[in-house]
Design goal:
125 residues, two-stranded antiparallel sheet, 2 strands, mainly alpha, 3 helices, single chain
Length: 125
Amino acid sequence: MSSSSFTKLSSSTIHIGLLVISLALTAAIAGAGCTAEEWGGGGEGDRCNPDLSHDECGSGLQCTQPALCPENYCCPTSGQSSNGYCQTGCNGGALSICMADQDPDACAFVAASAADAGSTPGTGD
């Protein structure tokens, strides 16, 4: 084998290797993008981060912090939500605020909710 055919073979092998690596990286990046598109963003009641440069919630939803809630959730931009995380107190969030800060509004909400349910706040009863 002459040195010129060895050089051509090595050059071809390198180009094929680079092509395979490029295709693998493209597939990995596209696969990650497909997953986000497949989900369509966060669903109603999913936690989200309002400080991101984009809204990570799905169509018709926005990353918001419901009243008396320490976290942010994907909630409808219009109309009421039946999802507990998109309602005042967000499924126990008001209790967290009451226990941590003794916030009078949060504590009053928890007490009223507990009275409606017939239980004692913070005890699980």
